[in-house]
């Protein structure tokens, strides 16, 4: 594929991704702290910190509002949820709707990373190494010629950068195969997103979320704000000053 074709394809993909959904992500804190594999147990948050509920053969576990960067979200913004959902029965079911009185809508969001070409990026042309000089015969001024525009010390290059794109569906269903489970979190790439929050959320908040399924079951759950993935180390014996 030629450079021009590659640039055109990248721009087209970026435009499609941006227009796939009009998500209110300005107030969404998608970045968070994470503990490494070598972190001590005392520095890790509990494996399951959310709440659970049952709806017939459906089990909902580890449900909470994602802590994000600060454990708070502003009214009018958006907040991601963490949900573990399992179908324990032998019949396929469908999650038909998810709603919340504390948000205008609940979206099934997918977070993608694409490479986008940075237009107009330039890079400095290589300069002669120390001790080296250009031959006088190569200097246009030696022949009474003025430097042309092509002799610019910069040249245009093709630079790309990774761009986070959030796609989403506001009218969605989710198939639940028999004896299976799905984890909807930012880490898995697909998650539920509260859009148009009607109030500020912080560590003291509880968010009501209603799940409705194809078997006629529905359940209303009060979700707490989650804990950060890593917490500060604690000393039970004090520290010397």
TrEMBL record:
Signal sequence segment: 1-31
Region (Disordered) location: 125-158
Feature: compositional bias, Acidic residues: 127-137
InterPro entries registered for this protein in UniProt: PCuAC_sf
Keywords: Signal
Name of the protein: Copper chaperone PCu(A)C
Organism: Glycomyces paridis
